[in-house]
Design a protein that fits this description.
Blueprint (H helix, E strand, L loop, with lengths): L1 E2 L8 E4 L2 E11 L7 E8 L5 E6 L4 E4 L3 E11 L2 E6 L5 E5 L15 E7 L2 E6 L4 E8 L12 E6 L4 E5 L7 E5 L4 E5 L2
């Protein structure tokens, strides 16, 4: 068992029997009251965010988790098949761990999967993916002055809102977690 003072962003803990990841932890010392740690955490099973205050000497159960760089191969039912590129071992990772990011992943994309023992428990998607625009309405000349957006279909079949100057066949950067357009790839 560890103390609450050992918590940091990205730590995995067992809280009320559920596996959670710490997304933010702050040490607070309010006036003449006792200090405490304010932790924001996300339940990995339900995905819900919650907050809790821990006393500095309170014991918490930190879970040992290993991160592996895996390559996304293909979807198979409710799972996505990923491969370790060093030993070519394949893993079936539940698609709900990817969230909406599955719509923006191309075959061969590198992701980070966190394992507790043999079980995948969390997926960290890349910050951006480069996707080709397969269909969008043509923009009109002079439409670059405003921040107006139009829908565009990318090579994975997902729809992204892009600026009017983006044309069919161009490469764009997309944030796979939010699905928002980031930039044009040059």
């Amino acid at each position: 068992m560890a103390k609450a003072s050992d918590l940091s962003n990205g730590s995995y803990i067992k809280y009320n029997g559920e596996l959670c990841i710490i997304t933010d932890v702050i040490h607070r010392t309010p006036g003449n009251l006792r200090a405490f740690y304010q932790a924001t955490m996300r339940n990995l099973k339900s995905g819900k965010q919650m907050e809790n205050r821990f006393r500095p000497d309170e014991e918490v159960e930190i879970v040992r988790v290993e991160d592996h760089d895996l390559q996304y191969l293909y979807p198979e039912g409710e799972f996505l098949v990923c491969m370790n590129t060093t030993n070519y071992e394949q893993y079936h990772v539940a698609s709900h761990l990817f969230g909406n990011g599955t719509k923006f992943l191309k075959e061969g994309s590198m992701i980070i999967v966190s394992f507790e023992g043999e079980n995948p428990i969390n997926v960290i998607l890349p910050k951006s993916v480069d996707l080709e625009v397969t269909y969008t309405e043509p923009g009109m000349k002079g439409d670059t002055a405003t921040r107006t957006l139009k829908p565009a279909t990318v090579e994975t079949g997902a729809t992204v809102s892009v600026p009017l100057f983006i044309d069919q066949g161009e490469l764009i950067k997309v944030n796979p977690e939010t699905g928002e357009y980031l930039a044009r790839v040059k």
